[in-house]
Design a protein that fits this description.
Number of domains: 2
Low-confidence stretches: 419-427
Number of strands: 34
Helix content: 10-25%
CATH architecture of the largest domain: Alpha-Beta Complex
Number of helices: 8
Radius of gyration: 29 Å
CATH class of the largest domain: Alpha Beta
Length: 427
Amino acid sequence: MLKSNLAVIILAAGKSTRMKSAVPKVLHPICGRPMLDYVLDLVKGLGASKIITVLGHQHKEVAQLISPGIKVVIQKQLLGTADAVKQASRLLKNFRGTVLVLYADNPLLKKETINNLLKHHRENNLDATLLTSVLDNPTGYGRILRDKYYSICGIAEEKDADGFQKDIKEINTGIACFDSAKLFNALKYVRPNNRKNEYYLTDTIGIVYKNGGLIEGVTLKDVSEAHGINSRIDLARANKIMQQRINEEFMSKGVTIVDPGSTFIGAGAKIGTDTTIYPFTVIENNVKIGKRCLIGPFAHLRESTVIKDGVLVGNFLEIVRSRINPKTIIKHFCYIGDAHIGSRVNIGAGTVVANFDGRKKHPTIIGNGAFIGSDTVLVAPVEVGKYAITGAGSAVINNVAARSTVVGVPARKLLKNNRISLASKSK
């Protein structure tokens, strides 16, 4: 972690009309988390002394994600990136050091990349350092301009670039760090002389250069890290890239994913070693899965589900807000909601935990060693005792005593001589 004096400015004020959404762009989820969260996590690992987030469009909603240690500045008029940084600079009047500018819609950046950028900037005592890349098709990106000595002398945004500049393959990713004094001075001279009539932060590069500043670039080999999100298409691409990273990380830690391309795992999920995930399985954020489990195919584990060691969760299942204890088997065609299921329980095919009564959700408890027959419907709130049995097709609306057997609709206790107990009939 770099310990020297560092301030980070995160730009999160944009409206992004291309998303065509009532939801602020930076709150759209990537693998179950708002894209802004990824940038905030990145910044926390940099050792910055000051962190400022610039908000604008629907700022009250976005501000709910910002932790107390991060300052918030509101850009009341969306006049461009240079204006946004200028608003943030008001909180850095006495700051002297390096200013890193990040964008909330760049969630794929890795900490190693940013650390390398900062290291190069500091070790070479530069006034500005850009994260650049070289693309065969640079459409959509600003182009890096260099002088006859191959020094960076400016950036041409694509909308304002001429024909020669559009042929340049080296692009600006948007990520940059500056000497604070040089940045704040350059901001004074930025003018909205462009087609959008906005104040571009990229114009500060040309201003620093004209004032004799030292500017260099650090080449980003994997340009997908700098993938910005401005549309639903961009969002889908980012989801795919992040999902690949998540799956590869789990596999590197001892989880078998049979087909990573059809397995979707949320960013906050936890999975133990020697667990196998079969194709077309969805594991949402905040799901915890133990060791040596078998999950899927076609399983959907929703948020706040906990699967303990050695559990088998099979085909075409949905489980939500439930805890499944070790060695339990749930193989086929089930819905399990708001349930606490003990160890070594067998849940038969077609079992449904009916947890919603039309107004609120209710819990179901199933004790250790219970055997739930196929097509059983458990109408919550209900409790099934240890080693109890429900017959196939039963509708359980009352608690089931330990080691007893119930059958029927509604389910009633079955006596040893196979007669239904009259005392347990519904009134």
